[in-house]
Amino acid sequence: MTSDLTDLTDAVNINLTPFQALMIPVALVGAVFLSLGAQFQSRGVKRVEARLGKQTSGLSVRHMLALIGSGNWVLGTLMLGLAVVLQLISITFAPLIVVQPLGAVALVITTWFSTRASGVPLGQRSRRAVWTCIIGVAIFVGIAALVGHESAITRPQLVTVLVVLAIVLALVLLSFKVVQRHKSALYYIIGAGVLYGFVATLAKVSLNRFVNHTFDWVTVFAVVGVVVASALGGYFVQNAYASGPADLVIAGLTVIDPIVAVGIGIIVLGEASGAPGIAVVGFLVAAVIAITGVFQLAKHHPQSRR
Asked: Binning pLDDT at 50, 70 and 90, where does residue 136 land?
């Protein structure tokens, strides 16, 4: 244990350039737009369902088309689009493991807006669940920032990520057939979080290859993967809004998304190669804490029980 602690201390090497450090406030502003966009999109989905009726097996094509005519949903989509642009800028010029999880700030903002808009205050258990999510993500990212490092992405590594994404897409589509009639908010949230984790990773790889003039045919498949995962993830998010409160959706996305993205960076891309054993244990413990917070929020959120 002492040796692991020494190794972890020796591994501390966070050397952000001033320009990279500037990406931190960029990511934080993106988190604000993520929160606002989630609120407006959620409001738009619920109004469309109130007009056209609720669906038990996911939003229909009619519901999805009706969203385009919803002013709240369109405004929320524009805000989320701006949030995505700011996220892409931040992950292009700064380490993924540093800026990607900053979206957890959106959870606090969204929770505040949600309670103000609904007039239903969070109970003590719900507030504890929110802070459990944030603490878990903070520990996870803190360890990743200490032991993580960026290196050039090889073609075999990118192919591995694409193969894993293909398997995940197959599993998501198969599971959707099984659970779609239950309209589970957690299922849609977890599915969207996993898919968006791949989106963030592949987007960073694609942008870096473009910037470094190493764009090739494999990168084209990565871009296609970003589009497919984004589209399916977006559909899952809209169903999550129809199944649960906005802050629960944001809790899942801002916890699961960065854990998946950083996990890919560690396991496949080798961004934590040589990390001591205590860091690996810390990753697992932090992930369990954060995910437990999501499940607790789903269980105790007042709007989830209504």
From this structure: confident
pLDDT category, 271, cuts 50, 70, 90?
Answer: low
Q: Smallest Cα–Cα separation from 296: which of 107, 162, 149, 126?
A: 126
What spatial distance separates the first Cα and last Cα of the chain, rounded to whole Å? 48
Helix 124-147 to helix 2-11 angle, to the nearest 10 degrees? 80
Residues 6 or more apart in contact with residue 282 via CB below 8 angstroms: 139, 143
pTM (2 d.p.): 0.76
pLDDT band for position 163 (50/70/90)?
very high
Q: What is the mean pLDDT of residues 145-170?
A: 81
Distance set, CA 242 to CA 39, 56, 123 (Å): 12, 10, 22
Total number of residues shown for the chain:
306
Average pLDDT of the chain to the nearest whole number: 78
234 torsion bin: left (phi>0), alpha (psi -120 to 50), beta (else): alpha
Main-chain phi, psi angles of 304, to 5 degrees? -75, -25
Residue with tokens 């903002």: 109
How is residue 269 annotated by DSSP? Answer: S
Distance (Å, whole) CA 172 – CA 166: 10
Lowest mean pLDDT among 12-16, 69-73, 159-163: 12-16
- Residue ranges of alpha helices (H) inside the chain are 2-11, 18-52, 61-68, 71-93, 96-99, 105-118, 124-147, 155-179, 185-211, 217-243, 246-267, 277-300
Q: Report the C-alpha gap between 186 and 172 in whole angstroms.
A: 13
